[in-house]
Design a protein that fits this description.
Fumarate Reductase Iron-sulfur Protein, Chain B, domain 2; mainly alpha; 197 residues; 2 domains; globular
């Protein structure tokens, strides 16, 4: 059973439209076009672990409720798999909105409520930075070291290795230099904005 927050019975005013505009500009989309059909939430493979469903995050942004949106665990749980974006009948880049909200949350001093979500997020990005793509074994090891849950999933990891579901050596992508450049540019932008990555 999902651990959902209570229904959103809120209203926003003209002064709260600033947040909506910031999110729209950063995500290059139009969140106000969302009419709450729920296709994003219905297709999300991680909705069971979210405090707000994706459609509820869109509503928080529409209403200009920045603190609620930026403090939610949903934006950190989101895997940016783009299922929500591909299902949206209004062509809203919902995954892009989640990316924008994560960036804004860090810049404004919000951190994931569950420390392990932040550890996973950093571990995943470290793998992409090193190899140009995620490497599951390295992600597994780095996450376990970061959370100090060293033996918790060892049997599962061993089964995945035995069935060749997890590569021992990373596959290095051809565009690795371009990806490294993106990380450097992102770090420069974060430093200018006062965000320490």
């Amino acid at each position: 059973m999902p651990n959902l927050k209570s229904p959103l019975l809120v209203s926003g005013g003209p002064e709260k439209r600033v947040f909506l505009g910031e999110v729209d500009a950063m995500a290059a989309t139009h969140v106000a076009a969302c009419y709450q059909c729920g296709k994003c939430s219905g297709g999300c493979p991680l909705s069971f672990a979210m405090d707000y469903q994706p459609r509820q995050i869109m509503r928080l942004v529409q209403m200009g409720l920045a603190d609620e949106a930026l403090a939610s665990n949903t934006i950190w749980v989101c895997a940016t798999c783009y299922t929500c974006t591909s299902r949206c009948p209004r062509d809203i880049d919902i995954a892009g909105v989640m990316d924008a909200l994560r960036f804004m949350a860090r810049r404004r001093g919000f951190r994931p409520g569950d420390r392990n979500v932040g550890v996973f997020h950093r571990s995943f990005l470290n793998g992409v930075k090193r190899f140009g793509r995620s490497h599951e074994l390295m992600l597994f090891v780095e996450y376990k070291l970061g959370t100090m849950r060293l033996t918790e999933d060892l049997p599962l990891g061993a089964k995945m290795l035995a069935k060749n579901k997890m590569a021992i050596l990373p596959e290095i992508t051809k565009g690795r230099a371009e990806i490294a450049a993106l990380f450097r540019e992102s770090a420069r932008g974060a430093e200018k904005g006062g965000d320490k990555l």
